[in-house]
Amino acid sequence: MNYHQYYPIDVVNGPGTRCSLFVSGCVHECRGCYNKSTWKLDSGIPFTREMEDRIIDDLNDTRVKRQGLSLSGGDPLHPQNVPAILQLVQRVRTECVDKDIWVWTGYQLSELTPLQNQVVALINVLVDGKFVQDLKDPSLIWRGSSNQVIHKLR
Fold first, then answer.
1. Is residue 46 classed as helix, strand or coil in its secondary structure?
2. Rounded to two decimals, what is the model's pTM?
């Protein structure tokens, strides 16, 4: 898996102060997407064990009270991203037990594969659905278009 950006302190992508990772790879290629640079799987920087360790360390850093981890992109649930994302969310669940995990995906909850559902079983919130330019609504919080659904899972 590759990623484009990591923010160790983010107050925009989910509630509270968070760590946010924007991964590479998206099959949806939504018209009007604000993050087109993340569509190609081979773009960005390789996601390494060192980067994973940094995220865990940042989530556990008591100098900054972080509520959790946000995963966006690209698409964290792109089939080629799922193994690395699954490993990351498993570590967060084990090593950062008081943190929540939010995931944004262009897939709908009802169309996820068994492997994608393994990730979803470990997260707190899934924001699903493709961004639809004609349904864009700047007044919405944590989603870009009115067709997208915020699923509170835990």
1. strand
2. 0.95
Q: Report the alpha-carbon distance of residue 78 to residue 72 in Å, rounded.
A: 11
33 has pLDDT over 80:
no
Q: Which domain holds residue 65?
A: 2-152
3-state helix, strand, coil in the chain (%, to 5): 25, 25, 50
pLDDT at 79 over 90: yes
- If we measure between CA atoms, which residue out of 52, 128, 61 comes closest to residue 92? 52
What six digits make up the tokens of 26? Answer: 């998206």
Q: DSSP letter string over 53-73?
A: HHHHHHHH-TTS---EEEEEE
pLDDT confidence of 70, banded at 50, 70, 90? Answer: very high
Nearest alpha carbon to residue 10 among 22, 18, 2, 117: 18
For the domain that residue 73 is a member of, what is the CATH number? 3.20.20.70
Q: How many domains does the chain have?
A: 1
What pLDDT does 89 receive? 98
